[in-house]
Every structure is written in C-alpha cells, then in structure tokens.
Amino acid sequence: MDTTFVLLSIAKIAVVWGGVLTGAAILVLAERRISAWIQNRLGPNRVGPFGLLQSAADVVKLLFKEDIVPTAANRFVHDFAPMISITVALTTFAVIPFGDTIEAFGQNVKLIVADVNIGMLYILALTGIGVYGITLAGWSSNNKYSLLGGLRSSAQLISYELSMGLSIIGVIMISGTLRLDEVVMHQTAPLAHSMQKLPSWLQWLIPVAGWLPSWNVFFQPIGFITFVVASFAETNRLPFDLPEAEPELVGGYHTEYTGMKFGLFFLSEYANMITSSALITTLFLGGWHLPFAESWGLSPFALSLVKIGTFFVKVTILVVFYIIVRWTLPRFRYDQLMRLGWKVMLPLSIANILATGLLLLWWS
Amino acid sequence: MIESYIPIFIMIVGAMGFAVVMGKMNEFVGPKRPSEEKLSTYESGMEPVRSARERFSVKFYMVAMLFIVFDIEVVFLYPWAVSYKLLGTPGFITMFVFIAVLLVGYFYVWRKGALEWD
C-alpha cells in the first residue's frame, strides 16, 4: 500500500461526493422547479439567480432547527437510523465507474473509486443495509404512522430487491463478470459484431442496426424494464412512494424527525436517485461509452473528459425522467404494489434469465 | 487483492463521520425549548390513542419469509451467472432444474394465497 494510491483514492472519493452531494442539492431544486412547471406554478426562484441557492438556504435552515425527539421514542435508534441511511447512500457509488481512465500525476488512473471484483454484490449488500435505516426510523419513533410507514417500506424494499437482483443476472451472464468497469467495456463494441450469428432471414438487420453500440439494453430489454421499475421502488419514488404516502401516513417513517436528521433522509433519497440512475446507465446504457467518440481524433485527455461528460449526461437524463414520472403518475395502492412485485416482476425476471440462458447457448 | 478494498474502507469511515456530524449538529447549534406537548407523539393534533408497540399484520412476516427463500436463490444464481459461458449446456440444465424446484414452491405459495394482500 503506497501513499499515492491512498491519496488518489481520497481524490476520487472527493470527486464522487462532490458530484453526488451537489447533484442532490441541484436535484431538489430541479424537482421543485419541474413540478411547478408541470402544475403551472413558478416554484422557488428568489434565492440567488433562478433560485439556484435555494437548497443551500434550506440546509442552513435545517441545521439551526431544534432537535425534537419524542419522549416515547427510543432515543439511540432514533438518532442512529438517519445515519445508516446516509452512510449507505454515500458509499454505494464506490464501485460505479464514472469514466474510463485519465492521465493524472503521470499515471493512468481508472475513474472508479474501488476497483473490486465483486462490484455488483457490493451494491446489493448495501441496498440490503439501506432497508435498516428506514425500518428502524419507523420503529424507533414509536408513532403509529411511522411504524406503518416503516413496515410498508421494508416489505416493499425487500420485495423489489428480489426482482432487482434477478434482472441484473441477465447482464452478468452476457458479460461474465461482476466488475462494473468490465460490464461497460463489454458494451463498447458495435452491435454488428454480435449480429454476425443471426439467422439468414434476419441478416437484413445488420446494415440497419449494426452501427448501434452493443449496449445491454438491446440484449436485455425485459431486464432493463424490470430493473428500472425495481429501482423506482427501491428509491421510494412515485408511483412506489407508499412508505411516505402523505394523505394516509403523514410523513411515513420520518414523521417524527426534525432538522438535519430529517434532512439526512431527504438527502439520502436524492443521493440514491443519482446512484441508481448511474447504475442503470452502467448496466444497460453503456456507462461512459459514446459511440464514435474514438474516431474524432481527440487527445487522450480530452477523450477522457468527453467520456466523463457522456456519463454525466446519461445520468442527468435518467434523473429528469425520475422527476417527470413522479409528477405524472398517480400512486399505487399497497395491494397493487405487492401484486406487481411478486406476481409480475418476479416471474418476468426469472423468465428473462431462462430466455437469456437459451439465447446464449444458441449464440455460442 | 485486499488492497483494493482500502478506498471502500476510507469511504465508509468518511461517510460515517459525515453522518454523525450532520445528525448531531442540531443538538449543538439548534435552540432547546422542549415542552410536554412538543415532545409528545404526533397524532394530527389529538391526544395519542394507544401505543405503536402493538401487533401488526402477519402478512409482513410472510413477505419477510418468502424474501429469504427467494433471496437465497438469487445468491446462488450469481456465481452461476458469472461462469455461465464456461459451463455451457450442462450448466443451463442444472440451473433449470434448480429454478424449476423453486418455481414449484412459488406456485404452491401463490395457490395458498400467501401473495394476496387483501
């Protein structure tokens, strides 16, 4: 273990956290402005130019609020639950590559915080821990609304975690690795390479679609849809925001939270949105890969920046999609939610695995 | 190989530090004016009726048990998926039998009504 490695890791962590936290702050504002636009209102536009400093003002306000812990609550767990949520939200990004490599300090640096060979398992493990934050918050508040919100939430999160885990398996079967940077590398070849094996009556597709990059979304359309739906449920976003359904549960699991402890739940929700958009991008939409970028004749450094920019743009598009979906769709009823999770998503993702297995056998 | 986990370790320690500082900040910089009403459990402005420490629906336990069964299946599928291209047809048949056994259990649970929520 040498010092350069540790310093580089710290630099990369700073970049990731800077990106995620700034992103979350801008996202809160974007969400409020887009919802205002959809509902024909103005939204916050007073603090700073276009209201850009609104989130900063909100954080300062939250920090100077009184910390109210109800007498009936379990004080230690009540303090601990938001800390679990934010720790998980801030550490999940460690294994997601946000660019290819970049020349810095005379080395070729891989743009991924932790280059571990079990990347996918790490993310699933952390998603599992994230359930504790919400469940414990609901239980420790000793409030009926919170308890119901926490229970609903844990049931929802574990139900959709199954389909999430199963829909990734198709991608892993294709790329044969759990490393997310290798999953991205595997998607950089043009689609024409894998289309050579098509039967003769489908050969006409090669000139039509052969120029496309071989992103996993083209091989795993069902896996892509189930994964996107499951990540909506995992991040508690509408149409799956039953844990905090305002009309019936007040605030759900965070009813009894004030000040920055509430802010931590809020922040981790938005950080999770960014992380899951980054995960969708990495697994299904080619990560940092931009077709034909290699042929522009850019210098290696500029090319790395273009790749980081591509990743950023893809994640931004997905995040805006999240926001627009939230303000467009109505909420599920709880029995509909569980039915969708157990009776539609689970069989669909298992069928997807079997179909992928058969196709891969026939392909090779 | 263990060296590649150092960044994760740094990240977790940093995130915990951030969490503790932010979560405890209000206790130090916020005002402290507690009153009995303020510290009572929230119930839309009414006196709280009964406690939250009561029994709740058995369905939540059912979901948790089914989750464990199927999540173990998912865990078994991961190493298989990584080496799928090496295993070839025998690998597919083995896993097909495994999933078929689980699907029998799944349809049994479905027919028994454990997946119904109303």
Task: Sum this structure up briefly.
The complex is a heterodimer of chains A (364) and B (118). By secondary structure, chain A is mainly alpha-helical.
Strands, helices and their partners?
The complex is a heterodimer of chains A (364) and B (118).
Chain A: H1 3-38, H2 54-63, H3 75-91, E1 101-104, E2 107-110, H4 119-140, H5 144-175, H6 180-186, H7 191-195, H8 205-209, H9 216-219, H10 221-234, H11 246-249, H12 259-284, H13 300-326, H14 334-363
Antiparallel strand pairs in A: 1-2
Chain B: H1 6-29, H2 58-82, H3 84-112
Assembly context of the chains: heterodimer
Major sheet summary line of chain A:
2 strands, antiparallel
Q: Which CATH architecture of chain B?
A: Up-down Bundle
* Strand and helix order of chain B: HHH
Rounded mean pLDDT score of chain A: 85
Largest interface: A-B, 84 and 69 residues
**How many β-strands of chain B, per DSSP?**
0
The total number of structural domains of chain B is: 1
Q: What does this 3D model show about the protein?
A:
The complex is a heterodimer of chains A (364) and B (118). Chain A is mainly α and 364 residues long. Chain A has one domain. Helix content of chain A is 66%, strand content 2%. Chain A contains 14 helices and two strands, in the order αααββααααααααααα. A two-stranded antiparallel sheet of chain A has the order 1-2. In chain A, β1 (101-104) and β2 form a beta hairpin. In chain A, α5 runs antiparallel to α10. Chain A is globular. Chain B is mainly α and 118 residues long. Chain B has one domain: Up-down Bundle (Methane Monooxygenase Hydroxylase, Chain G, domain 1), CATH 1.20.58. Chain B is 66% helix and 0% strand. Chain B has three helices and no strands. Chain B has helices at residues 6-29, 58-82, 84-112. In chain B, α2 runs antiparallel to α3. The longest helix of chain B has 29 residues, at 84-112. The relative contact order of chain B is 0.05. The model of chain B has no long low-confidence stretch (mean pLDDT 85). Classes of the chains: A mainly alpha (364), B mainly alpha (118). At the A-B interface, α1, α3, α4, α5 and α12 of A face α1, α2 and α3 of B.
